[in-house]
């Protein structure tokens, strides 16, 4: 049921925009009020820049949407300038179709017709006498003035639709169901989540933001090194001692030029004689103990014994 509902709603949105194009070209307000949107084009980085199609003019790196057109953001949010009104931020990977309300009276600023089937937008512009409309596969969101709009809308999976009506001078925001009927007014300062594209499943205090998602950090500068476990090490602390390689300009080479530091000679003993093969070796006998030399008193005793014939 959900895919068929979404496809049918998108067809209705596209048909409404296509039918309004010939009427807009033939009416005076569309030409007298000037272009409805100006989109900057980034020629240096096509992946992050926006793609603009429809009735437009390209000049000085900008696409000027005269009557109707579509803006598709790349990998970054696109700032769409609405002359004399404000800015419409088209979030990354989001396509928004723009046109003016053909039912506006001559001489009046026509309301802005917006349509999207995925992604998110942030409307930050002034609202005149004629209301603006944002169409999704499940809802028709009316933004009525006069006032200053800070309205954010995000479409999630399974038709989940987040609407945030912020700002000090929040406008009148009314969400109507395309197929089931009924309406829900989003009060000033209120953030609402319509789950599964239904007005019967409402979270009136949604915690998650409704606008563009935060920018993702830049990728790893060393993806291959990190995958191989060779990611660069964190720099050492300012007071930490560096035990690695020292600078050659700060450490002098170790040179011993003094004779006091010369190495001591090492006494090399000759190898012991190896007996010939087949020779009979006798066990080693310990040498007899050396005789002690007679002392001084022992010599005197021998002298007297010789004189008196004691020997």
**What's the total count of β strands?**
16
Query: What about the largest sheet?
Result: 9 strands, mixed
CA radius of gyration is: 48 Å
Mean pLDDT: 75
The outline comes out as elongated
Number of helices: 4
Distance between the termini: 145 Å
Percentage of residues in DSSP E strands: 25-35%
The helix/strand series, from N terminus to C terminus, equals HHEEEEEEEEEEEEEEEEHH
Helix content: 10-25%
Class by SSE composition: alpha+beta
As residue ranges, the low-confidence spans are: 3-31
Q: How would you characterize this protein structure?
A:
The protein is of the alpha+beta class. The protein contains four helices and 16 strands. Strands 1, 2, 3, 6, 7, 9, 10, 13 and 14 form a nine-stranded mixed beta sheet that branches. A seven-stranded antiparallel beta sheet has the order 4-5-8-11-12-15-16, with no helix packed on it. The chain is elongated. It starts with a helix and ends with a helix. The N terminus is likely disordered.
